[in-house]
Amino acid sequence: MARYFITGIAGFIGSSLARALLASGHEVRGVDNLSCSDSSNLSDILSDIDFCQMDINETDRLCDFMRGVDFVLHEAALASVPRSINDPMSSHTANATGTLSVLMAAQTAGVSRVVYAASSSAYGDQEAHPKHESMCPAPLSPYAVQKLAGENYVKSFWAVHGLEGVCLRYFNVFGPGQAADSPYSGVIARFITDMLAGEQSTIFGDGFQSRDFTYVANVVSANLLACQAPREAVAGEVFNVGTGRSQTLNTLYATLARILDFQAAPTYKKMRAGDVFQSQADISRARSALGYSPTHTFEQGLEETVSWY
Ligand code: UD1
Q: Would you tell me which of 8, 38, 93, 208 could form a disulfide with 14, CB atoms 3.0–4.6 Å apart?
């Protein structure tokens, strides 16, 4: 039994992690400022976790609440490329400054390891595919810059303070509990809720942009492995967490329309600023260092997600 601390625990990734850890008999503590998530995500587990509504930038309070834990899983973020373009400062405060605050709290509290939710957006658009961790980052949006800054803070706390930090670059995570009610929601949640409401969805661009859509159970498994792996293999390192395959938006739309028996075609609008064109993970490094292997394909994840709505 280990003690885990989750930032952003009311978000859909944070709450999925909490559920999996409780099921394995671990102790779970966590914080969320509930600015873009709903405590209803925690209703089934609230009595089994130690939860406090708190912003991650309240470093001293965070540190006090963190004392005694073994692992910190840092999921709290304002996760959206367009949001970071519309309001870069609040996005920076949550994503970059917030990560610094979590690391400072973890170091002072004597935590042994922090696993950080990094982002595939760090790669930007590059000629080579799939994206490998050895490629030089080329962030296109403020969001990508902020998430990359977080990675560099994690690496520097390992180098300077010996705080074990592991960066997991998530590739477009989706699954049950993902918010769908905001213009900043992930595309899968948006398309499913549009189709269920009988409304037309919008595709930004020509729909030929691709993503390595990764079911949340794969991300949960990568986090648990990142906590268990030997320090020499993972501290200060970056790992892609995806499936190793990608789908275009047009294929995603067609697959969901088939599953939900939805007839209407999407509306096409101008491509979004800061949008990456192609995104697919090379997961060989995570396979060899973490023993990671996707537990769910894109299609399996989609079936599970649709049946949740
Ligand atoms: C990016 C990151 C991802 C991160 C996420 C956080 C990349 C490759 N991925 O995701 O790792 O978790 O930010 O928010 O940078 N779209 C539509 N219609 C819609 C909504 C979106 O066509 O209604 C399009 C977008 O323009 C984009 C794709 O769908 O091309 C995916 O969008 P979204 O789900 O918002 O994620 P990314 O911005 O790709």
A: 8
